[in-house]
Design brief:
Rossmann fold; 235 residues; 7-stranded mixed sheet
Length: 235
């Protein structure tokens, strides 16, 4: 693993964690993290709309592993609503502080390890892991991806960072006018250093045995999504 980030420590100072999570939510909104996930989810919602013809609203569950402050889960709820789906998000966090932050904004959150989730196979509709895999050793990330494929009834969506020197310089410079704390500035650069090239991401997906390929998205993001059971790739 490259470096150490504040959010790698489940026992980090709660005040520092709260500040960093709020900074990350702003980064997601401004630099493509939220949009990357919504763009992966919307084809899934659109297929549901075509299949049912707007005649019936449905309720789905979303398991958001590494939910942080729940900002992306909340954006997914809004996107789903446009397509007649009531999305019920459940976040998973190793940090009690992060789980509390998500819960305070309306996302039910469990304190649990993403590699040992208390969830039965095929018991949630969609599993989402956004910007969490780069916090893990590579072999652990592969195991997590394989486990997500077993948990989801409908689909899995992965979103992470594309490694880029340009992005590192950009986020460092942008952090000053945005008023980010020094810890956020440093951790944002470390996260990008830990990010993935498409070849590396695809190799992990292949080793996990899932039917997906990585794609780059704006904001130096990389994503992959697939329908569980391998029947059809999303997006």
């Amino acid at each position: 693993m490259i470096g150490v980030e504040l959010l790698d420590d489940p026992h980090a100072d709660p005040s520092a964690v709260r500040h960093e999570l709020r900074d990350i939510a702003r980064l997601n909104a401004l630099f493509g993290g939220t949009e990357a996930v919504v763009r992966e989810l919307e084809p899934l919602f659109e297929r549901r709309t075509r299949d049912t013809g707007h005649r019936k609203r449905e309720t789905w569950t979303l398991l958001d592993v590494g939910t942080g402050s729940g900002d992306i889960a909340r954006a997914a709820v809004v996107a789903a609503r446009r397509h007649g789906v009531t999305l019920r998000p459940v976040g998973v966090e190793l940090s009690r502080t992060a789980a509390h932050e998500a819960h305070a904004t309306g996302v039910t959150a469990l304190v649990a390890d993403g590699g040992a989730l208390p969830i039965r196979p095929r018991s949630v509709d969609v599993v989402l892991a956004s910007q969490v895999l780069h916090h893990l050793p590579r072999d652990v990330a592969v195991r997590w991806i394989a486990s997500f494929d077993q948990l989801a009834r409908r689909a899995v969506v992965l979103a992470d960072l594309r490694r880029s020197g340009l992005a590192m310089a950009g986020v460092w410079l942008a952090s000053f006018p945005l008023g980010f704390r020094a810890t956020t500035r440093r951790d944002a650069v470390v996260s990008l250093q830990r990010g993935y090239a498409k070849r590396e991401f695809n190799q992990m997906l292949q080793e996990a045995g899932v039917p997906a390929v990585g794609r780059y998205r704006p904001g130096f993001r990389i994503v992959a999504s697939w329908s569980t059971g391998g029947s059809r790739q999303c997006g």
